[in-house]
Structures are given as structure tokens and as C-alpha cells.
Amino acid sequence: MDENTFSYEWIETLSRLEEMAHLLGQAEIIGVDLEADSLHHYFEKVCLLQIGTEWTSYLIDPLALRDLSPLRSLLSNPRIRKVFHGADYDIRSLYRDFRIEVQNLFDTHLACKFLGLRETGLEALLRNRFLVELKKKYQRADWSQRPLSPEMLEYAALDGRYLIPLARMLEKELGAANRLSWVEEECSFLSKVRFSPLRHDPLYLRVKGASRLDPRGLAVLEALLEFREGQARKSDLPPFKIFHNEALLELALRKPLQIDELGAGNVLGRKQIERFGSQLLREIHRALAIPDEALPQYPREARPDLPPDTRRRVKALKTWRDRRAKSLGMEPGIFLNNSLIQDLAIKNPRSIEDLGGIPGLKKWRQLHFGKEILAALKESPKGPRKEDS
């Protein structure tokens, strides 16, 4: 790729966006990337959309445009290949903010996983394959700010510039390994993911380490998390910029009752105590007053009580899966995850046709590994199956 022939254009008017969408409607393949502001705002949104060809990149400003409807027909056109890297978040965000759907997706991150590559991040791929260094500091930049600096614009254009040549390389490697159709099927399913609003489950379920707390500690933690959530929403800041999870977890463990106890162990900064100290103590006192019978209980995942034959089938499938994944150079969980293994063991299909009734067991697994799966299931029990006796 000639450094001197590549360019990028900033688009902030509807007329130019329409022209660009019409022009790219003739392309066979485009690269797509986006930047959001979840690290800087409570109400996250797409702040920049990059769409590129092999020769130029268009940086689209959704904060100025608001209306991105001209892109709907472009990104949903099944004739045009859309290359993303790590598309899950992008697909969800595009539909959430603009009701944009993507068809004919090719995810280079997913392709790397199916090739068994150790380094699958875009930064590492560009460094290893194109000798290009992305500036890490812009990965955490606030893309909602305006104007964007020239360096941020160059980073955004560069970020998506190599997606198409990278995709061509990976497609060839997948084709040589006879795995291209596997990735294409996975990408087809990935293109249909959608953003799900946060459920009304207790907030402490999202905090690593909360399971170690007793019920009273959980009540304190939940009260503190609800307070933080309200402050974050009011300030339009991500919750971690109000208090880190670790700080609230420590407070839930210690349950301080006085202002001077809040600063113990440097869990909270002086400014945090000055601003929020009395409110934090109020929340702690409120949680400590909850009657014992009303305290929360951390849900313990109950393992299904599987019959012995089913457990043997699970073990046999995992043994086969691990050995087969190793021979393919793939991560076992990418090749066949534990949830699918359990479903297979429970339903115990007897034929290739039966495999089609297992949700999530995509066609590439049935076509290429169906007979091996059935053999592993058949050979797993020691002695005749109950249903055969």
C-alpha cells in the first residue's frame, strides 16, 4: 500500500454523507470501525465512525450529523463485504444508536481465533504484519470532545486503514486451512447480535469479589453501588470515575461508621471523602439497619444433577474436544464450548440429523465434526445404555 496515495476525509454534513454512501455502494469490500465514549460518560454513544476503502478513509461525525440513515443501505447491502475487528460491540452500538444493521460481515478478530493465532489484538496484528505502530494512548481517549486533534484523526484513519488488506490475508489463510466457511457462518450469527439494556439484577453481581461477602456486607455493597450509580448518572460519568469497585468492596468489608474511618488504608482519596463522605456513611448506616431476614443472599450457581451416563458423556466429549482442538491449533472454548458440550451430553443425539436440533451447534461443526461427536457420545458410557437395555 502506497503511503502517499492514502487519504482521509472528515464528514459532518448530510449531503456529503449521502454522496459517500452512494460512492461506496459500488465497492466490493469496506473496512468499518467506530469510537465510543464509554470510558468518559455514563450515557455512552458512538462518537466517530470510520469507513474505509484500500485508498481512503471517511471519518464520519455522528455528533454533528445525528442522522446516519444514508449508511443503512450501505452497511446492510449483502453484496459488499464489511470488515470489522472485534465486531460484537460495534454491531450492538450501531443498532442501538442508529438502527443500522450489518450484513456480509467479516470479523478479523474472529478469523484470528479460528486460525489459532496467539496475538489477536489489532495493535499486535498491525505491528506484526504491516510494521505499523498504533498509538495506545488514543485507545482510551475521549472521542466525544470536539474538535478532535489532528493526531486523533490520523489515529482513527490509520486504525481502519489496514482492515481490508488484513482481511485478505486472513481469508487466504482460512481458505488454506479449510476454515473460511466456519468463520463466515460465525460472522453471519455475529451480525445479528443486539444491544441489551441493563437488567434489574442486584448491582453487586457485577463486582468481582462480591461473592466473598456475608449477607450484611452484600447489603452495604449494594447500597454503596446504588449511590454511585445515581452520582454517575447525575454527573454523566462512568461509575468507575466516581468510585472504583475495589474501594466500595473494601468499605463493604470494613463497614466504617465515622468519617475518620473512611480514609483507613487509603481506600478513598481526601477529595472523595470531603465530597461524598457523609453520604457514604448514611448509605452504610441504612444497610446496617436492614433486618436480618431481608438481607440479600449471593446466588450460588447450582450445578445440574446429571445422571452418571450423562456425566460420562460430558467427560468423553471434553476429552475429544481438547484433543481435537489441540490438533487444529484452536482454543477449546472456540472449537466447542462447555455449554454446548453439556447440551450434547443431555440430549444425546444419535444421528447427524439429530445434531441439527442442538441450539448453537452451527452447521460447520455438524458437517466437519458431526461423526466424531456422535462417536464420542456413543463410546462414553461404560456398559450398555439404559435406553438400549
Task: Briefly summarize what is shown.
With 389 residues, this protein is of the alpha/beta class. 51% of the residues lie in helices and 8% in strands. The chain has helices at 14-24, 62-65, 70-75, 87-98, 108-115, 122-130, 150-161, 163-176, 180-190, 215-235, 245-254, 259-262, 270-288, 308-328, 332-335, 338-347, 352-355, 363-379; strands at 7-11, 29-36, 46-52, 56-60, 81-84, 105-107.
Q: Helicity, in percent? A: 40-55%
Largest sheet: 6 strands, mixed
Please state the second-level CATH architecture of the largest domain: 2-Layer Sandwich
Integer tally of domains: 3
CATH class placement of the largest domain: Alpha Beta
Task: Tell me the β content.
Answer: 5-15%
Coarse morphology: flat
CATH homologous superfamily heading of the largest domain: Ribonuclease H-like superfamily/Ribonuclease H
Count of helix runs: 18
Average predicted confidence as pLDDT: 92
The rounded Rg comes to 26 Å
Report, as a whole number of angstroms, the end-to-end distance.
67 Å
Low-confidence stretches: 383-389
